[in-house]
Amino acid sequence: MDGLLLIAVLAAVVIAFTVSASAGFGGSLILVPALALVLGTKSGTALAALLLAANNIVKVWAYRKTIPWRRAALITIIIAVGTALGALLFVAAPEKLVTIAVIVTFIVAFVAERFDLSGLRRRFGAPLLALLSGATSGFSGTSGPLKGLAVRSLDLDRLHLVGALSVASLVGDATKTAIWTEAALIPASAYLLALAAVPLMFAATLSGRRLNSRLGERGFTGLFWLVMTGYTARLAIGL
């Protein structure tokens, strides 16, 4: 990787990790397409999974005091199972079909939130959203809006929501990284790049956490749905 390309990758890393630390998720919205553009789809997506997994370790440390371990446990486990299935089995699935399903799910969930149907969604929707989140993440490198919707169903305040999203993201990205490393999609040099990016991870995570604390609940809700809309717009453009 030449110098200019390395700078571009590290710039994408900083932006992605700042967004991720402030909203709890969203790093893959920036990082996956950026790395896929410069490195190719498979290599870029695999490297993004590795970088996101490493960054989520830092996020878990940063939000360690506001992680609802018990409440997030079931959704996190389901996301991990879905991610493994997606990474192993969803390669042959029609990508357009998966994309359409994710967009429809997002619209339904947005309407449910708008009309305060959160109780119904929480009772019946969270496990399914978590499973689909993991599956689409394993298939495409990003879970899109589904992970955010699944964890949001836990009705947590913004700090605990980010904590729960950080744990779920760590488990999902670590699962993908392990499977794709075994499949030789992640070369050894990628781990050196991830190690070099550690200082950026700490700086971006601390900046994102500071931004989160200044937003307030209303501002955070706006940021959350902005990231969700960005995910959906990216999916729609790919159709």
TrEMBL record:
Pfam families: TauE. It comes from the Bacteria. It is found in: Cell membrane. Coiled coil: none annotated. It is a multi-pass membrane protein. Keywords: Cell membrane, Membrane, Transmembrane, Transmembrane helix, Transport. Its main location: membrane. GO terms for cellular component: plasma membrane. The chain crosses the membrane at residues 30-52, 72-91, 97-112, 124-146, 188-207, 219-237. The keyword Cell membrane applies. Belongs to the 4-toluene sulfonate uptake permease (TSUP) (TC 2.A.102) family. This is Probable membrane transporter protein. The lineage of its organism: Bacteria, Bacillati, Actinomycetota, Actinomycetes, Geodermatophilales.
